[in-house]
Amino acid sequence: MAHLPDLLSNNRTWAEGVKRRDPGFFEGLARQQAPRYLWIGCADSRVPANEIVGLRPGELFVHRNVANLVVHSDLNCLSVLQYAVEVLRVEHVIVCGHYGCSGVDVAWKRTPLGLIDNWLRHLQDVAERHAQHFTRAMTEAQATDRLAELNVLEQVTNVCRTTIVLDAWRRGQSLGVHGWIYRLQDGLLRDLGLSVTRESALPDEHRRVLASLSANGR
């Protein structure tokens, strides 16, 4: 508890710095939020969504959970998605995973941790569904990197199959769903190549990117 006052002090320093650079920033921020993007990412403390894409508060709507999963029974995630799409009218949903994800590592190794094992079972399902993308020649690090990539692609598909996104497309709303991945070692994002802007494009795009993943040995 002794460190909590430090956080409050840091907050005051940050707020004062923002006001010096932009005196009207907080007043404008309080009046409305109009982000163009929804970010669905991992809760990992090393992946700060706004910072790595260079956006300020108010420009990125964010949902984070362990291993950036989109589960159709998760009302928290679905509520964020629904609000972003139907109320804020975001133009892009970005599902972003990262290499070196602890959740992916635990799921791959099947390390028992307790309650979270039920959540990470979704990741194990991804690995089993795409077993052909793992080879015996892979190191454990390569296998977990591959699972992190496959997980992003799977969650993009899950976003696209929600009634929220399907309804948006059917009423003609402009909305793209994209899969990215972040590397902790260099701070760089990588587009995995799966971007879907209409319902009919999903199957072909998903197959194309999966084939590319295998062909390139990524």
Could you explain the architecture of this structure?
The structure is a single chain. The chain is of the alpha/beta class and 218 residues long. The chain folds into two domains: 1-31, no CATH class; 35-216, 3-Layer(aba) Sandwich (Beta-carbonic Anhydrase, Chain A). 50% of the residues lie in helices and 17% in strands. The protein contains nine helices and five strands. It has helices spanning 4-21, 25-31, 49-52, 75-87, 102-109, 116-129, 140-160, 163-170, 202-216, and strands at residues 37-42, 60-65, 92-98, 176-183, 188-196. The protein has a five-stranded mixed beta sheet. A hairpin with a 4-residue loop joins strand 4 and strand 5. Helix 5 packs across helix 6 (116-129). It is globular and about 55 Å long.
Label this structure with key terms.
globular; Beta-carbonic Anhydrase, Chain A; alpha/beta; 17% strand; single chain; 9 helices; 218 residues; 2 domains; 5-stranded mixed sheet
